[in-house]
Each structure stands twice: as C-alpha cells, then as structure tokens.
Amino acid sequence: MMRPLHTILTRLLTLGSLFLLGACNDDPTTGRTSVAGQVVQQQSRQPVGAGSVQVYLASRGGGYRPVGSPYPCDAQGKFSFDFDAEQQNGYLLTAEAPPGYITDWALAPQLTAGRQNKDVLVPVLAPAWVRLVLVDELPKSRATVYLSGYDGPGDVLSYPRDTILIRPALADFPRKIIWGINETGIIQQYSQDVKLAPLDTVTVRIAF
C-alpha cells in the first residue's frame, strides 16, 4: 500500500531538519564550551593519570597562549570541564603528567568552540633520560666539553672532572648524542646514536 504523498514529504522534511541540526552542532561558535575525554600515551594508547590538561588559543602574532588554568585529570587520565570560548577557531588541548609525559604540539587535538567536545583523546609522549658519564682519563685535563642531542639547549662544561649528568629526552625517537672536546683550541667532535624506550635511561660514556 502506497503512503500518502504528504506523509512522505513530512518525513523527508523532518530528516532534513535533523541533518541540518546535526551539522550546526559541529559548527564552531563562541560561548560555553564543554570538553570531556582522557589522556593516553601516544605509543601504547594506555591511560596516563595524575596529570592535567590545558586549553590553548592560537595567537594572531603566531604561537599559542594558554586559556585559563590547567584542569586536573583523575588516576585514569579522565577529565571534564567547561570554558568560555571568545573566538570560533584556534583552540587546542594539551596534557602533561609526571614524571615527564607531554603532548607534542603537532598531536594536540583541536576543540570545537561553543559546542560539546566528547571523548577527546589527548596523546602524550613518554619521557626517557640520557645519563652522560664524563670520564677524565688524564686527571685534571684542561678540556672544555660541549654536549647536545637531548631535550634542552645543551651543556658546556669547562675543565670538568669525572661527572655524571642526567638529561631528559622524549622516548621512541632516534637521537644522536653529540659531544665536542676542546683541549688544544680545536674541537674534536664525536657522536653516538641512541634509541630510548619509554621511562628508560641510556648511558653514554664520554672520555676526555
């Protein structure tokens, strides 16, 4: 039995309205913005707890500026909060957690302003460390040692003795630890390739 034409048209109009309503819900706007989700390790997708998440907004001059204060996560890395969006676009969410988990900016999820953002997964990269063991093989060597290849600006040590430095480096990225030794006015450069597992420490021995 065929349905009346007006019934079919009514249903089509209803479906069209629902479609437009759903599309509007995905459009960015301003005002109250809800965010809920979980912090997970990028490599394993396992929960990372006891950290915090931070909303950032793209600045007109470049880079990002924080929006408000960080929001805490529970022991399973879950979070839920609201904030007022002043702009329609440009919001990112990052996370950090002890002992050094952090979100890569390229992996930070975008937020839809003025809407509900549910099941947001915020990936963090696991930390690792490099143990630099400097060995003065000729006691009281008058050498300057230049170190780099880990997170941070590097180190310059003038006339060091036997020394151990611990420096952070994000895990699962191939790295080249580089050091230069200057004893005669000419810098002799050396390097060692390392691969750091999450929460692991790799030792590099540097003799001078």
In helices, the fraction of residues equals: 10-25%
CATH topology of the largest domain: Immunoglobulin-like
Tell me the span between the first and last alpha carbons.
Answer: 94 Å
Question: What's the rounded overall pLDDT mean?
Answer: 89
Q: What's the CATH class of the largest domain, please?
A: Mainly Beta
How many domains, as an integer?
Answer: 2
CATH A-level architecture of the largest domain:
Sandwich
Number of helices: 1
Order of helices and strands: HEEEEEEEEEEEEEE
Report low-confidence residues grouped into runs of 5 or more.
Answer: 1-24
Work out the strand percent: over 45%
Structural class by SSE content: mainly beta
CATH H level, superfamily name of the largest domain: Carboxypeptidase-like, regulatory domain
The number of strands is 14
Task: From the alpha carbons, calculate the radius of gyration and give it in angstroms.
Answer: 26 Å
Q: What does the largest sheet look like?
A: 4 strands, antiparallel
Numbering strands along the chain, what is their spatial order in the largest sheet? 3-2-5-6
Shape: elongated
